[in-house]
Request: fold
Amino acid sequence: MKAKQMIRIKSWTLGLIAFVTLSVFIVVFASVLRADEPEPDSAQAAVSYLQQSLLQAMREGEQLNYSERVEFLTPVVDQTHDIDLIIKTILGATLWLELDASQQNLIIETFRQLSIATYAGRFKQYSGEQFKFIEQRDLPRGQQLVRSQLIKGDGGTVNFDYVLHRPAEHWLIINILFDGVSDLAIKRSEYRSILQREGFQSLIDMLNVKIAEAEHSE
Reply:
């Protein structure tokens, strides 16, 4: 009787040890998975939402035409980019204040359409691409830098670094650097030159041409 009791006790003890070991493993494994996920409402979460949406548009590239990709990506861009601040920064305070209210509204909306069109025109085919998060760190004036890489299907990489600020509840992108080259700086030089040399309507015409080029890049 005692031998049977001892066997039952040993079996129960081994079962308990196995259960505890499995529970610890599950907790540790879950912690590792959570470590790879961005904190809700963080700058990284905003970038991740944009990037995963772009990958989805690429994966569904054969099913979605350009207009459908625009429709899919419009709310994504609206929720992740501070379009108003980006175009104001590109033009600069002096040139911005020289525009009347209707011109300001027009260039904001045209630039918004161009931003969406650019994503829809470029992210349309999937060949195994993945985004890899590198780091998130603080910048001056309460801004955040989120560094990431696009790993292409052939193994090549492109560095995508995002500068974000938080004007209200959510972090919004205000600049993107491609392999260290600032998109904001490129547009600042181009847009200001056209506006100063040729005037406001020429700048709007140029943006509309770029939108049309994105649409016809199918």
Summary: The first helix runs from residue 2 to 36. The helical segments are 2-36, 43-59, 66-80, 83-98, 101-122, 183-198, 200-215. The two ends are 81 Å apart (CA to CA). Residues 43-215 form a domain with the Nuclear Transport Factor 2; Chain: A, fold (CATH 3.10.450.710).
